[in-house]
Structures are given as C-alpha cells and as structure tokens.
Design goal:
5-stranded mixed beta sheet; 17% strand; alpha/beta; 5-stranded antiparallel beta sheet; single chain; 17 helices; 503 residues
C-alpha cells in the first residue's frame, strides 16, 4: 500500500499539499502523535498524523521537524486542518517539497480514526492476499521442482514474487537465474549479503534493491544460496515463498547425494570383501558393473596417506562424482584404498587432493590385471605411496619404480617369493612369537630410503625406538642395512612376499 493509494480513497477527502515526489512511498502503519519530536516512536514506513498542537514556532524548527521525519523513514505526514491551524503552515509545505516527504491535508470532517482504519483494513487485505498468493505459488513451485528441477523452481519463485531470483552453489558459481540475463549480478549481490552475517537468511539493501539470501542447507551440508532481489521492501510472504523454494531445491540436491552415500557404503563393503578374498569374482564383477564402473576399464589402485581417512574419502568421492564415476574406497587406520578405472583418473585425483586437503596427503598407484590381482596392486600402491612420502611428491606410480618388471614376470616372481620366504622368515617368526612388528618396521625403513626421521614418523615411533628395532633386524637377518645391495634385496623380498599384510 502506497501514499498514492491512500490519497485515491476519495471518501477520506485527502489532498497532497507537498512532497509529491514521494507519493509512491509504502505505508506500513498509521500513527497519530502530537509530540514536538515524534521520531523516537517511529520505526519507518508510518503515516504520521498531527493537528500541529506541538508544532515548533520558528520556520527553521519546522523545516527540521519535516527533515527528521524524512530521515526516520516516515511514509508521509498527514496534517489535520481546522483545529489548531486553519491551513498547513507554508514552512511545512516547502520542507516537504525539499525532502520529497508527502504532506497530506486532512480535512476537519475526516477523523484520524477513519484514516487509521482504512490503512489497517488494507493491510489486512494485503496480508490475506499474500497468504492466498503464497498458497497458490507453493504448489506451483512443487510441481515445477518435479518437472524441471531447481531452474524451474527459480523461475516460478521469480514469477510469484515479481522479483529477480538467482541460485548459486556453495562456491558462489551460478546454477540458475530468472531473468537469465541477471546471472551476471551474482558476484556483487553475494558480496552484499555475505558481509552481513552467516544466518540462514540474510537481508540487505543496496544498489540492486533489497536482497534476501537464503542458505540451502541440510544438516551441516551446504548446497548453495538462493537470492531474491526486489525493488521494494520484502514482505513476510516473500520470505515464506523463498524458504519453500529453498527447501524444494535442498530436497532435489540432497536426494542424489543420499543415494550415492548408500551406494558408496555398499561399494566399500564389496571392495573390502574382494581384498580379503571373501567374495567370488563373478559376484564382485556384477556389482562393480551395476555400480557404474566401466565394464572394459582397467583397474587402478590408489592408496592415499597423510590425511584423515574420512576426510580423504569425502574428497575422493567428490572428485569422482564430478567425473560421473562410482567411488570404491576403503578407509584404513592411516590410509585410504581407492579403485578407479584408469591411471589418468588416479593421477588426477591424487594430484588434486594433494592441493585441496590440509595437511597435504601423498598417494601411490598401481595397476591390477583383474579383480583377483587387487590385493597385489594394493601392496604395490602402498610401496609407491611410501616413495611419494619420502620424495615429498603428491603421487608416485608403481609403474615408474625400478624393479617392477621383475615382480610382473611369473618366473622371476616365483624366485623372489622363494627368496622372500627364506630371507624374511626370522622376522616373521619373531613377530609371531613376541608380538613385534619388525616386518613393517623394515619395510618403512626401506621405503623411506633409510631416512630415520621419515621412517619413524611413518611408523609413529621415536627415532631411538626405530634404531633399536633396526639393530634387532640386522642381528636376526645377519645383515648390514647400510649396504645398498642388502637394502635392494630385502625390498624386493618384501614386495614379492606372498600374503604380505597391508598396513
């Protein structure tokens, strides 16, 4: 409701005496007040009604009276003539024109109560109209969500609210806008509302108008923000429709994520059983195919170390989702095992998570000929990850390591397995008998090129503890680990050892 609408109610007999430039100011209430300074009792948008009983005497004070009403956000000043003043003082008219504050002449025959009742009745009508509008718009938005997804909801909200509506993801990238050409406004609009706070709904007024930004959130997961931009004050109905639209978009964006999470849990179980040899290959292959793993793709194992396992799984899943690939990942105590359909994908994922996660993890990758070779590929990828940690590289591929050809050749691998069985037997027996972990200690020491600090960090033990263990290993094996030849032989033995336990 505007000042113009009120003046057009002929039964009230109102006449605009000054400040016509502001005739379209919205009215939110009417307040009859005869104080010399009514400003402390105003909140903005009021029609201030007075007969001028306490009007200041001087022209300068009267100008200041109008100025303060304008600065307080009053919608208009209604001046009743015929009681304390036969006509509106000219100083008020001049000031009203100067500040653009509508000045209405109220005839003696029109009681202020009649004006107040007209305004309250109209506000009630508008509130009811808004409720009706919202009740009609909400089903349309729901149908739009079912038929056209988030862009259709954005379009329907813009139409129902007669405003501009924009949708962006959690990074601020535009997803939808109506009208479409307004998408370019998104960066400046986000700058306005982001600076205000982190509440679910933030409202701000700026160069583009009044902006309400609603965060699309389900639990702790934020999907983005829905912005409504209008060239008028926003009503409670606008906020109701904005919230409804945000809920529809949240449901649409959450559903595939929930389905993917359920699929990921099943994928984790299948991969775990496959690695443990507890799932027959035919069943495993069927599940991998049904989950969306490319049927003719190679199998590449990626082992990620150095980040919280669940955090690493989340990052890997997001990156694979962007590539429309399923996530087969198993979190371990200090690493994550992932299987992807190509070395290119493994390289992309390993390098990206190294830049996106803190602390930066390292990764190793290895190829598997088929599902039956996954366990071997895991051991190879773990070796590559250990080398990556020693080098400070984000990713090392097992194929790039010297000695892999020996392990892939069946004849030489059989020889190396025999060597491993005899060479490492003293350590295996000691571990079994005393509960120590000398095999893992030796492997960490060799993978980190004999670097005490790096190896002890990888094992989570003090350097002195590591030195004591290495001395014991040297005594049990009868070797000197300072010899490069000895280290090479033992590393090949570890790589070729059948059934080696993964860390």
């Amino acid at each position: 409701m505007s000042v113009r609408w009120l003046v057009e109610q002929r039964k009230l007999g109102l006449r605009i005496a000054g400040g016509e430039a502001g005739i379209d100011r919205p009215i939110v209430w009417a307040h009859s007040i005869e104080l010399a300074d009514p400003v402390p009792w105003l909140r903005g948008g009021e029609l201030v009604l007075t007969t001028g009983l306490r009007l200041p005497d001087s022209a300068a004070q009267r100008r200041r009276y109008v100025q303060r009403l304008h600065e307080a956000g009053a919608a208009a000043l209604g001046f009743g003539v015929g009681l304390s003043h036969a006509r509106i003082p000219p100083e008020l008219v001049e000031a009203a024109d100067e500040f653009g504050l509508p000045l209405l002449e109220v005839p003696l025959s029109t009681p202020f109560l009649a004006i107040t009742k007209t305004i309250t009745d109209r506000l009630a009508e508008q509130e009811y109209e808004g409720v009706v509008r919202a009740s009609r718009a909400q089903p349309r938005m729901t149908r739009a969500a079912l038929r056209g997804g988030a862009p259709a909801v954005v379009r329907e909200l813009a139409t129902a609210s007669d405003a501009t509506v924009l949708l962006c993801d959690q990074r601020g990238a535009p997803l939808a806008a109506h009208p479409p050409e307004t998408a370019d406004l998104l960066p400046s609009l986000l700058a306005e509302v982001t600076a205000t706070g982190e509440e679910t709904t933030v409202t701000s007024s700026g160069a583009q108008g009044v902006v309400a930004a609603h965060t699309i959130r389900v639990g702790r997961r934020v999907h983005g923000r829905l912005l409504l931009v209008a060239q008028r004050p926003l009503t409670s109905v606008d906020h109701v429709m904005l919230g409804h639209a945000a809920s529809l978009i949240a449901l649409e964006q959450e559903k595939p994520l929930r389905l993917r999470e359920a699929q990921n849990r099943l994928n984790t179980l299948v991969l775990s059983l496959s690695l443990e040899g507890k799932l027959d290959e035919a069943t495993a292959r069927r599940h991998w195919r049904d989950a969306g793993f490319p049927a003719d793709a190679e199998l590449v194992v990626l082992v990620v170390r150095g980040a919280a396992p669940q955090q690493a799984v989340g990052a890997v899943d997001r990156l694979l989702s962007e590539k429309d690939l399923p996530c087969f990942a198993v979190p371990r105590e200090d690493s994550v095992i992932v299987v992807v359909p190509s070395a290119t994908v493994a390289r992309s994922v390993g390098e990206r998570i190294a830049t996106e996660l803190r602390p930066s993890p390292v990764s190793g990758s290895a190829r598997a000929a088929d599902l039956s070779e996954l366990a071997t590929a895991v051991r190879q990828a773990e070796t590559a990850a250990g080398v990556a940690g020693a080098r400070g590289a984000p990713l090392v591929e097992f194929d790039s390591l010297a000695g892999r050809t020996l392990l892939e050749n069946p004849e030489t691998r059989a020889v190396l397995e025999t060597l491993a069985e005899s060479r490492l037997r003293p350590l295996v027996d000691s571990d079994r008998r005393t509960g120590t972990d000398l095999v893992a200690t030796l492997r960490a020491f060799l993978e980190h090129n004999g670097q005490w600090e790096a190896a002890s960090t990888a094992l989570g033990v003090h350097r002195h503890t590591l030195r004591n263990r290495i001395e014991r290993i040297e005594r049990l094996l009868g070797v000197d680990l300072r010899s490069a030849h000895v280290r090479a032989e033992l590393l090949l033995s570890l790589l070729a050892r059948p059934g080696e336990q993964r860390r």
